[in-house]
Specification:
Oligomer: single chain
Distance between the termini: 37 Å
Structural class: alpha+beta
Largest sheet: 3 strands, mixed
Number of strands: 6
Number of domains: 2
Strand order of the largest sheet: 1-3-2
Length: 158
């Protein structure tokens, strides 16, 4: 089961998802909370499954982490809520160990990593920024060191 399907199952009883919404081209998704329903609109023009998965993850992140109308991104509080939703999406779709798995699978560039993880390259960049905020420039897991800037994985052989 792919990431998109797993996300659908995550909210199947709590959120209505409409992936045929007529949204402006510059808006890939939108979360609406009403008194009676929670609704995620996905732009009908999204054809790439990776883009659709990343967009859905972020909108579900809004469902779990934000409140009210945060569409005015000139307000600091709204920016903070947007960041919370994006962090939720990253934590849902990528863990640091995924970079090690990709390294061991022979993945050597961002495009291949995007394909391996089922997310967009821009989502990978967002994830790397997120992990740098948590761990700093690198993180050691068992006998691997994952560097976030630039992204690289080193295996420690003793």
């Amino acid at each position: 089961m792919g990431g998109y399907e797993k996300l659908l199952m995550e909210v199947e009883n709590n959120v209505i998802i409409d992936d045929t919404a007529n949204l402006p081209d510059d808006i890939s998704g939108y979360y609406i909370e009403t008194n009676s329903d929670n609704l995620i609109l996905l732009n009908k023009n999204i054809e790439c499954t990776k883009t659709k998965t990343c967009t859905l993850a972020e909108e579900i992140g809004h469902h779990y982490t934000t409140f009210g109308d945060i569409s005015d991104q000139s307000k600091t509080e709204n920016i903070k809520q947007e960041i919370k939703a994006r962090r939720w999406a990253v934590q849902k779709l990528i863990v640091v160990e995924d970079f090690i798995g990709a390294f061991n699978a022979g993945v050597r560039n961002r495009y291949e990593l995007s394909e391996f993880l089922g997310v967009t390259e821009s989502f990978i960049e967002m994830a790397l920024t997120h992990f740098k905020c948590i761990y700093g420039l690198y993180c050691q897991i068992d006998n691997y060191v994952v560097y976030f800037d630039p992204l690289s994985v080193l295996e420690i052989i003793e």
